[in-house]
Amino acid sequence: MSQFLTEITRQSANPIWPLFDKICSIPHPSKHEQALSDYIVSWAEAKGLAVKADEVGNLIIKKPATLGMEDRKGVVLQAHIDMVPQKNEDTEHDFTLDPIKPYIDGEWVTATGTTLGADNGIGMASCLAVLGSDDVAHGPLEVLLTIDEEAGMTGAFGLKEGLLEGEILLNTDSEQEGEVYMGCAGGVDAGFTFDIEREQAASGNVNKKLIIKGLKGGHSGCDIHTGRANANKLVARFLAGHAEELGIQLTEIRGGSLRNAILVKPLLAFLCQSRMLLNLSVCSLYILKWLRLS
To answer: EC number(s) of the enzyme (predicted)?
Structure first.
């Protein structure tokens, strides 16, 4: 038993925690869910449940209705298997090989130097806990566990019609315990191409980088209305407002790896006229003041 599980079970007998602890112990970033999928299949079969993997790798687990509730509408509980693989800059962690290490911090469960994977590990553990319980009365029950939700929704898009029988679907990928949301955040992918003109570096220019730290970040759906700064937008505003006056020549701009995360760490590399370095420092101070990070 892990130290986390030992501590959490002293505080709560909820059957979700042993399942969540096991989920954390098996690497499952997006595109690398197979090991956890294999464990879930073995877990379901050991409990005598019908389990099937579809063509793209989604899992469907079925449990017959409780005696006397066979005529109820079927319910599908849904979660996704994969997690967002993000780590602190000073953390050594291979998400395809290393387990997540959860721990208790006051009233919260968090992870050591990485994302916890509660999105959607807690939802997944909740679904499995219902399947494994003999105390929950229910009609025909199905659990749908999709793959690759965080990096393309390929599991959801690849789900074929007719595999599920239930009439009611409850998605567990939400934020607040005991609350049900009607609707979703949605998302759009857009691709842009444009021609650029390359030029020689001006004489006397020096290499500089703009680094922004301390942004809060968040989920692009759940936190988009809270006014959290997007680092890419800040970089664009800096260039729009000061590139010409500082004689900036852009050498590299890059930011973001996840569609559903508010970016916190951009990369902007550029050449700047050496005589404008003082002005560059002043501009940086204005940015800090504006962001209230200083």
So the answer is: 3.4.13.18
